[in-house]
Amino acid sequence: MNDKLRAREKAAYMSGLLGQNMLYNFMAMYILFFFTDLLGVSPGAATVIIVLASLWDAINDPLMGMIADKTRTRWGKFRPYLIFGPIVLAMTTIFCYIDFPLSGPAMVLLAAICYILWGMSYTVCDIPIWAISSVVSKNPNEKNKMVTLGKIGGTIGTAIVTVGSIMVIQAFGGERSPSAYTLTAVLLSVVAALMMVFTGLTLRERILPEKEVIPMRKNLQTITKNKPLILLMISLLLVNLVNGIRQSAQMYFVVYVWGDSSQLTNVGISLIVGMVLGMAVSPMLIEKFEKKKVFLAACLLGCVFSGVPFFAGGGTVFFGLVFLGISFACTGVTTIVSMSMLMDAVDYSEWKLGFRGEGLIFSANTFLTKLSSTVAKGMIGLGLILMDYQEGQPVTTTTQAGFSAMMYLIPAVCFLVTMIPLFFYRINAGQRQEIRNMLDAKYHM
Questions:
Q1: In 3D, which of 126, 177, 156 has the Cα closest to residue 366?
Q2: How far apart (Å, rounded) are the C-alpha atoms in residues 152 and 276?
Q3: CA dihedral in degrees (53, 56, 58, 61; nearest 10)?
């Protein structure tokens, strides 16, 4: 079978992750603000809802990964979830942004149910859309190209929401109108669902699963006996906090520090310029340098360019945007390099254990993303409580310092701490080639 990916498949994969990230970032950016400032849920209650629901969502990821690894259909292991799952995800996204005619505990309970259902439906789509990248071709270069395109598509989706969603919300009634968020959610959900279904209908799975279904206990060895993966997972948990914290804090930041919600558009521009630039140069960097060294260098630079604006007193808005853009570029590099390293972990599993377990490995990656998001939301919620934040409160030096720390200082610390487990990561270029030679011999037997 030809391992060369068609242009249509590459476009479909990029499109699917663009749509998926539109929904994810719309939720990450606005759900806490929607709960506290539009539904009137207290910061404490909203934080409990989001943190517990996100934690449950993260726990679901490995379960979904094992379910996907056991799936056997005429469409493949992962495609069925991409054909039918996006419809449910679109519906639950819309439900999260409806101001139902309830109040008090009933409203809090319904908000919690909607958010939990959203997380579960997102998981059903999220694990397969990443795991399918490891089975679309036996050629590692083709798979790396696919992942890079997917990440670029995801970044564009993130930027579309960051730059354009506030404009749509304002067009539908403004940031203080619940119906504006509902209508925006409907628009985004329909577009995103169509993109993701197109992905499921277009891609082909060229690495077929073993006929024998791997028992759950044995499949768990994909993680427990894969030391490079464990170290990479720890680093990903930490570095994912950078964008997770910024996504949850940026609406508060532009309102209370920069005093203008429309600056959210400029934050989005700095995001897309920085992330795309970082992703674009990553393939060239990992061709010339060891992946681990590229990852470490990006973290160090990310720490510097995230921390400087905080200690410089913020400076002008332009100053802040430039430094955010450079730190986003560092995040773009870590995003591509870490996914390439994750592909190595899949090959390492087959080399050492005799089976790939890509569903479980990629579910571990999405588990970490969601766990990081949960921790990030918890940190933001704790910050709101410590600042004694009230809906629509006047700007104070406390809120300005607090939200500045969330956008600059805490991400700088996350970049720095991410470097620690990477020092012990041991897969190098020589071992990687040895693994690929063995796998090539196996495929061509």
A1: 126
A2: 6
A3: -130
